[in-house]
Specification:
- By secondary structure, the chain is α/β, with parallel strands linked by helices.
- It has a domain of 98 residues.
- Helix content is 35%, strand content 17%.
- A 14-stranded parallel β-sheet has the order 1-2-3-4-5-6-7-8-9-10-11-12-13-14.
- The chain is globular, with a radius of gyration of 26 Å.
Length: 432
């Protein structure tokens, strides 16, 4: 049983590995499936990558591969020590091992692969439920998929560059029948024409889509149609932070449970939270330019009685409002606070020890400026927390002397486990 499970989706298991050795080992197993005829052909082309391949595999491991990540395969080909034009030839041969009359995939990830041919492979991709692509992919491949697949439930698309003429992804979206989760990533400034096309392509699925992420300010009022959203993730990559967010004003999300945002103004989020119906259980917010002016934290404690996780930036001016939040959000069990500027940690810690709900014991504290979280402040917090549930504590601060304090209070039983990092910015970037 272990072999089919491990080989169902190797990219998921090894895709984040920093060591290239596992990639090479998997690649050697893949190469071992090539026939003698294919090996001879590659050698004639000047491609000899079989030095570590000794015998045919015991299993047809590739037959267990149900989640086809061509980005993963392309990366392994890229690791070979052969010329670029040879990598193209090798990639085509390897792809034939995966795509044949016996193949059936439920997940497909593609990128800039010019040698993928959908024609004649209908049976392989007709039941895909997860699809990832970026706009480096050949638009004709996406249009080809649109002719054979209507079963995608989760779709992820990454805008790598601006291209007004790339309508392949729009066509693929338009033919789907079971779409529930959509992720639009964007690493570039907003192209309103292109983003508007993507927004309009989703309107048909307003009733079925429950999980949505978009990395730009909404160009249209399309979000006002998505009344069944359970999760909303907003990120703004534009350079005009204060540009109007009017297209969110009419949006109401009565079923929303998860809200995540980056670079979205606090007052926009406050209005959005007011238009939920008290079902939010997780809020994760980070802004580079702005901290709350009081409206956001008030909207949270007035409209989120079921909240169990909160990540938020705090400034000194509104830290007192945290008392109301702790009193009204009695289901909180994890709190992630980013202190801005010369944040008064003593005041926050005093409020936490006096008003924290009984289930709140997981904390992450990050000082936005190095050295902002002092040893004395943390010691006071831990001393006053002594009679409560032992805490799980994650600290991001420039004060390296905190480590000894963590060890001491773990021995005392006040801290159950802890993580300490001096790199606040790494934390902020990676957490998102």
């Amino acid at each position: 049983m272990a072999v089919p499970i491990l080989w169902r989706d190797p990219a998921k298991i090894f895709g984040c590995c920093l060591n290239i050795k596992p990639f090479k080992n998997i690649f050697n197993v893949i190469l071992s499936h090539l026939s003698e005829e294919s090996r001879d052909y590659l050698k004639i082309q000047g491609i000899d990558v079989f030095k570590e391949i000794y015998h045919q595999p015991l299993f047809n491991y590739i037959s267990f591969w149900k989640c086809l990540d061509l980005c993963f395969l392309d990366y392994m080909v890229a690791l070979t020590d052969i010329e670029e034009n040879m990598k193209y030839i090798l990639g085509k041969k390897i792809l034939k091992l995966f795509i044949n009359s016996d193949s059936k995939f439920f997940s497909l990830s593609i990128s800039e692969l010019q040698y993928l041919n959908i024609l004649g492979t209908e049976q392989c991709f007709s039941e895909i439920e997860y699809f990832y692509s970026d706009n480096n992919a050949n638009s004709n491949i996406l249009k080809g998929l649109a002719k054979i697949n209507t079963s995608i439930k989760k779709l992820e698309f990454y805008i790598m560059y601006i291209d007004d003429d790339d309508h392949g992804i729009v066509r693929l979206i338009e033919v789907q029948k079971s779409l529930k989760e959509v992720i639009f990533r964007n690493s570039r400034g907003t192209n309103e024409t292109y983003c508007k096309l993507l927004e309009n392509s989703l309107i048909t699925y307003a009733d079925s889509v429950q999980y949505l992420r978009i990395d730009w300010k909404p160009i249209t009022e399309f979000l006002s149609n998505f009344v069944n959203l359970v999760s909303l993730d907003l990120m703004d990559h534009s350079y005009d932070y204060f540009k109007t967010w009017n297209n969110l004003e009419k949006a109401s999300f009565p079923l929303l449970k998860f809200l995540k945002s980056e670079r979205v103004p606090p007052w926009v989020l406050a209005n959005l939270i007011k238009n939920t119906k008290g079902h939010l259980i997780k809020i994760n917010i980070f802004n580079y330019q702005d901290v709350d002016d009081g409206r956001l934290i008030k909207a949270i404690y007035q409209n989120c009685p079921k909240l169990n996780y909160l990540r938020l930036q705090l400034s000194n001016e509104y830290v007192s409002d945290f008392e109301s939040l702790l009193i009204n959000c009695q289901f909180l069990f994890k709190l992630d606070i980013i202190g801005m500027d010369n944040f008064n940690w003593n005041k926050l810690f005093d409020i936490l020890t006096k008003f924290s709900p009984i289930n709140l014991y997981k904390f992450t504290f990050s000082a936005f400026n190095y050295g902002g979280l002092k040893l004395e402040s943390l010691k006071l917090f831990l001393d006053n927390w002594n009679e409560r549930h032992p805490v799980l504590l994650e600290i991001h601060s420039g004060d390296i002397t905190i480590r000894d304090l963590m060890k001491k209070y773990k021995t005392k039983g006040v801290i159950k486990e802890y993580v300490l990092s001096s790199d606040e910015w790494l934390y902020i970037q990676m957490d998102y």
